[in-house]
Design goal:
The chain is α+β, with helices and mostly antiparallel strands. The protein is built from 14 helices and 20 strands. The strands form 6 sheets. Strands 2, 3, 4, 5, 8 and 9 form a 6-stranded mixed β-sheet that branches. Strands 16-17-18-20-19 form a 5-stranded mixed barrel. α7 crosses α12. The longest helix has 28 residues. The chain is globular and about 70 Å long.
């Protein structure tokens, strides 16, 4: 599920680089891998070692392609889309086979359990695995034979899943594509069918999502934009191709959950239904931003009407991520959990993480469980042994990633605003604390900044849902996030 993204362009990177270095040091973010873990990675990059008793299918004849941001090297997924002779569609989806490179119980495995996820900073990332693997031997780079977990998902003419097959395979990607290029090729009609089917299948899966009551948030990226007088913050709306690509990953995660539930052993990504109070708060925010939310319209239906290119809608979509809080991992080995405890509320179905093993620890284990289930075998002992601790590890890793994200946003906003102390901006109050009506959150119309506001004695009750001129009073990168008072 999306969170609040942030990108820093090369032109705007220098002013915040020192503060980001300080942030990494303060959060004790590892900058290098232990020598023992690096040595294991170097060795595995030369001689991958798939888990015992598995035979890989040669699938190098499938002309797979990857779709990622420009310059990405940690390529988890590659796909090939086709029409089935009898009608419907076929999705061949290759996922990097990290278990072929990481020895259970070894130094590299221990370091992956310590890191849990790749951490993203505006000026770079701190990887889960050493680059020799994550951006090299294990990555599905073009024109290279790679071990993979290959999913074959057959869909009917409406995009509903009809059959699932998953096995180890040797694959070879033919092309590394990026979202902008994919969108341009599809829109112009120049995309060949394996690529043009991304729109066809993506839209069918979006229709399936609507039918089951699922929600996908097209949350805009917050990015730094250079202009003649310096640089500012703005929102970039996601492209349709981003969402179509995400639907392929969601499809695979749902198929993985079905395999796990049928076999009796699994690790699901779960999210409880949002409480009524959270939805009521979001309704207040919608009113504050002038977003029309008719009384009998569901949250899921409303979200699908929003336009992320509109400033107020973009701000509301950022706030919608609050309903995704509370996500966790549910492990079972024996009787599957009841459906109400197995579902992901936003997906509106059981769901599992299996498509990003280069960047997320749990996916390596999820893949092994699915491979075992599809083959009718018991899961490997090393997987079963790790399962009980996995939810706690993933939760802690998620908290660390969320803190990095939050502090990076605060830092960059403060860096870009620190020379504008005392200036007045147009904003709108989108949230007020229940116990302190003089404190809340304000979104600026321009630039794309979200900050705390303290009305104090001047305004003891903030006007929720109203436009308000505000004055910037604090902005110290790495120390104090942006703060405002009524002007």
């Amino acid at each position: 599920m999306p969170r609040r993204h942030l990108r820093v362009t090369a032109a705007a990177e220098a002013p915040v680089r020192a503060a980001l270095r300080e942030l990494r040091a303060r959060l004790d973010i590892p900058q290098t891998f232990p020598l023992s873990a690096q040595a294991e990675a170097d060795s595995a990059a030369r001689w991958p070692h798939p888990p015992a008793d598995t035979a890989a299918t040669d699938a190098t004849d499938i002309p797979l392609f990857t779709v990622d941001p420009p310059g990405s090297m940690d390529l988890d997924q590659a796909m090939y889309l086709s029409r089935r002779p009898g009608g419907g569609y076929r999705v061949d989806y290759a996922i990097a086979d990290v278990a072929s490179f990481v020895t259970p119980g070894g130094a590299l495995d221990a370091e992956a359990h310590r890191r849990v996820t790749t951490l993203y900073f505006p000026d770079g990332h701190v990887p889960l695995h050493p680059p020799v693997l994550g951006e090299g031997a294990a990555s599905l780079l073009p024109d290279e034979d790679r071990p993979a977990v290959l999913w074959r998902l057959d869909l009917d003419a409406d995009g509903a899943l009809r059959s699932t097959d998953v096995r180890r395979a040797l694959v070879r990607s033919r092309a590394r594509l990026d979202y902008e290029g994919v969108q341009r090729a599809i829109d112009s009609g120049t995309a060949e069918e394996p690529l043009s089917l991304l729109r066809t299948i993506g839209r069918l899966r979006e229709d399936q999502e609507v039918a089951r009551g699922g929600i996908s948030l097209n949350v805009p990226e917050q990015e730094i934009v250079e202009h003649p007088d310096g640089y500012t913050l703005a929102y970039r709306a996601p492209r349709p191709a981003d969402a179509w690509n995400a639907q392929i990953s969601l499809l695979t995660g749902m198929a993985a959950a079905e395999l796990m539930l049928s076999s009796g052993t699994g690790v699901l990504r779960t999210l409880p239904t949002a409480p009524d109070g959270a939805v009521a708060r979001l309704r207040r925010t919608a009113h504050a931003l002038g977003v029309d939310w008719p009384p009998h319209t569901s949250y899921a239906a409303l979200v699908r009407t929003l336009d992320p290119t509109r400033t107020t809608h973009a701000a509301f979509l950022q706030d919608c991520t609050a309903l995704l809080r509370g996500a966790g991992y549910t492990v079972f080995d024996g009787d599957p959990p009841p459906l109400e405890h197995a579902r992901h509320a936003a997906v509106a179905a059981p769901y599992a993480h299996v498509t990003a093993p280069l960047r997320r620890l749990a996916d390596r284990y999820g893949a092994e469980l699915c491979l075992a289930a599809a083959a009718g075998k018991e899961p490997p002992d090393w997987v079963r042994t790790a399962l009980p601790a996995l939810p706690g590890e993933m939760t802690e890793g998620g908290r660390r990633a969320a803190r990095v994200e939050r502090e990076c946003v605060d830092l960059v906003e403060a860096a870009l605003m620190q020379n504008r102390l005392g200036e007045v901006f147009d904003g709108y109050v989108v949230d007020v604390q229940d116990d302190r009506p003089d404190r809340g959150t304000v979104h600026l119309y321009d630039p794309a900044v979200i900050g705390r506001i303290d009305g104090g004695e001047q305004l003891p009750e903030l006007p929720l849902g109203h436009r308000l001129p505000v004055r910037l009073t604090e902005a110290d990168p790495g120390r104090t996030p942006v703060r405002f008072t009524p002007a």
